[in-house]
Specification:
492 residues, mainly alpha, 4% strand, Rossmann fold
């Protein structure tokens, strides 16, 4: 069944490949990888006019290098196929993990399908993809591995600390399994887990920033932009949405007091679901780590149902058929063929159909025409580009157009710069009708010598600039509007 789940979600990912580029940070990750390959890891930001001497903690540097290499080899097409591949691989492993814990193919399929749709918004070309895989690997070692295999956890932690700040999840998992061993009275395993946890802490130091990796992770977790970015806000439970279904499913099969389900599985499901409801950023981890518990709970409820014996018999038949060597061999072969074909340019061209590109940067955060106009007519003007445009600017013209701020946020910019960006971009919802905000806005444009603004035509910032004396709109299309100071406009 894991092969079938992998194939299904890989095909879904390829079908929805454009979504892999919906995160504006992809652009700066590629730019950072290009820079590291050419010049080495920078200590400070080389592309903005605001960061100054602030250190840049690029804790995803290894991912950036891999992404840069992939982009060089196959362009954005290879980037989105690789994103779909990692997403599908994570879901195949979730299915395998759920089946091994529950002993039920039907329960594993149901849970992995639900988890896959919750995880789908996370199929983005960003380093969290590696966190999805490493979470599954950590769980597998902690649940099924012996004492010797547990020694692999510090090695995985060292890799994790160089690709994404999600390594914190590994320590949460270690803590849950420690509690399970402690309450079971398994003192030897509890002490071993403590020792492995200490090894993982030491492994965190195997990165370019040493112990400052903790400071970098803390900067992200306590970002100045935390209250204005959607991914940090509580989840909205819309009826019928995948997250809503996950919560309903969790409540419907509740088996938290069933002794047959290990304590760590219950704790992981409860902790991450609660964290996911408080912050959308955590919900994708919740989808993965609640799967073992949910599969066991569903399998238990199916066995207790009046028709449980019939379902169990059918379940065992399906499992027996799919576990045959010949079937598994065919499914593995099909998986390899599908992946290899998706990376091939002729196949990508065929999937694109006609003159449409296989994939392209979404216009919502790639103001290509407006930026070209600005570079042609106002090459020396300092632009303030809305937050979502920064990544694309670094991707396409990092050496031509310095940015005010971009998705690197607290790991590259001083906190006061980010707070000023909130004011300049009206990111916190306060409008220009607020006299104090209007005065602060004017003062900041003078402080940073801003000569123009690049923003969405429907943004609060665009509305403010339209009504504001001293600023002129010189370009607008469906995706972006360019405003410059009246002096620059008249000179042009």
């Amino acid at each position: 069944m894991p092969y079938i789940v992998f194939i299904a979600f890989f095909c879904l990912g390829i079908g929805l490949r454009q979504g892999a580029l919906m995160d504006p940070d992809t652009g700066w990750h590629i730019a950072a990888g290009d820079y590291i390959r050419a010049h080495g890891l920078p200590a400070r930001d080389p592309w903005s006019y605001t960061a100054g001497d602030a250190p840049w903690y690029n804790i995803s540097w290894a991912f950036d290098v891999l992404l840069s290499l992939l982009h060089d080899i196959g362009g954005l097409g290879a980037v989105v196929v690789a994103s779909a591949l990692i997403y599908a691989l994570a879901m195949g492993l979730v299915c395998w993990m759920a089946q091994k814990r529950s002993g039920s193919l039907i329960a594993a399929l149901a849970v992995s399908a639900l988890a896959g749709f919750v995880l789908l918004p996370g199929m983005l070309a960003r380093p969290q993809l590696f966190t999805f895989l490493l979470i599954v690997a950590f769980y597998w070692v902690l649940r099924f591995g012996g004492p010797r295999l547990l020694l692999a956890l510090p090695v995985m932690t060292a890799f994790w600390a160089n690709v994404h700040g999600g390594f914190i999840a590994g320590f949460v998992m270690l803590g849950m399994f420690f509690l399970e061993a402690f309450f079971k009275g398994d003192r030897q395993r509890a002490l071993y887990l403590v020792a492995v946890g200490a090894g993982c802490l030491l492994a965190l130091l195997v990165n370019p920033y040493g112990w400052r990796i903790a400071e970098a992770a803390s900067l992200t977790m306590n970002s100045a932009l935390k209250d204005v970015l959607l991914e940090w806000r509580p989840v909205e439970l819309t009826a019928g949405s995948p997250v809503w279904l996950l919560v309903v499913f969790f409540a419907g099969v509740s088996a938290l007091f069933e002794k047959s389900i290990p304590l760590a599985d219950k704790l992981l499901a409860c902790f991450w679901l609660a964290a996911g409801l408080m912050s959308a950023r955590m919900m994708q981890i919740a989808a993965i780590l609640s799967a073992p518990y949910l599969a066991q709970a569903l399998a238990l409820r199916l066995r207790q149902a009046p028709f449980g014996e019939a379902i169990g018999a059918r379940d065992r038949d399906y499992a027996a058929d799919l576990s045959k060597t010949a079937v598994r061999g065919v499914l593995a072969f099909v998986s390899v063929v599908f992946v290899a074909a998706a990376f091939a340019p002729p196949v990508q061209k065929a999937l694109a159909a006609g003159d449409v590109a296989f994939v392209e940067t979404p216009s919502s955060h790639a103001p290509e025409a407006a930026l070209s106009y600005a570079n042609a007519h106002f090459p020396d003007a300092r632009l303030f580009a809305q937050y979502g445009f920064g990544g694309y600017i670094l991707y396409c013209c990092r050496d031509l157009r310095p940015v005010f701020v971009d998705g690197r946020a607290d790991t590259a910019y001083p906190r006061d710069v980010l707070e000023d960006a909130i004011v300049l971009g009206f990111m916190d919802g306060r409008g220009a009708t607020d006299p104090e905000r209007a005065a602060d806005w004017t003062a900041l444009t003078e402080k940073y010598a801003i000569g123009g603004f690049l923003t969405s035509p429907s943004s609060r910032l665009a509305a403010h600039l339209t009504d504001m004396a001293g600023w002129a709109k010189v370009y607008e299309d469906d995706d972006a509007a360019l405003f410059v100071s009246a002096d620059l406009a008249s000179a042009q």
